[in-house]
Amino acid sequence: MADIQLPSQKLIPSLGLGTWYMGENKSQRQQEVAALRFGIEYGAKLIDTAEMYGEGEAELITGEAMRGYRDNIYLVSKFYPHHAGRKQVIAACERSLRRLNTDHLDLYLLHWRGSVPFAETLEALYQLREQGKIIDYGVSNLDLDDMQEWCDEDHLGLTATNQVLYNLKHREADYALKPFMDSKQVSLMAYCPLDQGHLLQHPVLSQLAERHNATTAQIALAWLLAQQGVIAIPKSTHEERVKANLDAANLTLSHQDLQLLEEAFPMPSNARGGRLQMR
C-alpha cells in the first residue's frame, strides 16, 4: 500500500480501516474487534476512529484490536467541536489515549467546525504535538472557506489532512476544495468511500470489475487510490470484505478504465451536496 507524505514529512498509508458505527451495539463488539484485528494481521497499517463513535466505544474496540500491534498502526482519532477549546482538546485527547491504550496518536482531527476559534484549537494541538501525545493534526468536514481560514491560522503550516465525504458519486471536493488542499500538500481522507454501498450496483463498476476479475467495491477503492493525495478508510465488520477492501491496493486501473469512470461519474459543476454532517 502506497504512503502519502504529509507537510511534516511523516508518511500516512493511503488505505486503512474505518470504525464509524462501531461500538453502538454490544452484541456486535467481538465481531467488530475481530474484523479490525483481522485487517491488521492482513496488512492494514491505518485505523481511523473518533470519540463520537459509540461515545468512546469504538476507541475501546480499536484499542482491544490493536493490542500487540500498536507499533505497526498509524492511528487516527477525532474530537468533538464542543471539545475544541484549548483545555478541552487536551482533556479529550487524554481520554482517547486511555481508551485506545496508547501513549500517542499519529493524527488528531477536529471532527467538524463548531464555535471555538480555530486559533485556540490549533494552540492546543501544537501543545499536544510538543508533548509527543500527537504526531500530526488536521480537520474533518471543512469546506473550502473553512479550510482556507484554518490554513491561515495554522502558523506551523503542518495540517495533515481534511477528512471529508469523497467517492465516485460524491466528487464535490474536486470542484475547489481538493485543488486548494493539493496546493497546501494537505491530504484528503475519504470517508464513505463506497457511498455506504450505494455505488456498488453501478453498471460501469460492474463492467470494470468483470474486466479485472475484481469486486465493484475494489474498483471504487482503486479509483480513490489513483487520485493524488487521497486516503480511503472503508469500514466493514466482515472479514471477507475487509480482505477484499485491502486487496484493492493491488489493483491498477488503466488510463482507459479511469476515463470510463470519469465519463460515468463526472466532476460536479459546483461544491454543493458533498457533506454528511457530524460523521
Care to describe what's here?
By secondary structure, the protein is an alpha/beta fold. It has one domain (11-197, 228-237): NADP-dependent oxidoreductase domain (TIM Barrel, Alpha-Beta Barrel). Helices cover 39% and strands 15% of the residues. It contains 10 helices and 9 strands. It has helices spanning 29-42, 57-66, 86-100, 118-130, 144-153, 177-183, 203-212, 216-225, 239-247, 255-264, and strands spanning 3-5, 11-13, 46-48, 74-79, 105-110, 134-140, 159-165, 187-191, 230-232. Helix 1 (29-42) crosses helix 2 (57-66), helix 1 (29-42) packs parallel to helix 9 and helix 3 packs across helix 4 (118-130). The model has no long low-confidence stretch (mean pLDDT 96). This is Aldo/keto reductase. InterPro entries: AKR (IPR020471), NAD(P)_OxRdtase_dom_sf (IPR036812), NADP_OxRdtase_dom (IPR023210). Residues 15-263 form the NADP-dependent oxidoreductase domain. Pfam families: Aldo_ket_red.
Q: Segments where pLDDT lies below 50 for 5+ residues?
A: none
- Beta fraction: 15-25%
Distance between the termini: 25 Å
Instruction: Indicate the overall shape.
Output: globular
Structural class: alpha/beta
CATH architecture: Alpha-Beta Barrel
Which CATH top level class fits?
Alpha Beta
The biggest beta sheet reads:
7 strands, parallel
Helicity level, as a percent range? 25-40%
Radius of gyration over all CA atoms, rounded:
18 Å
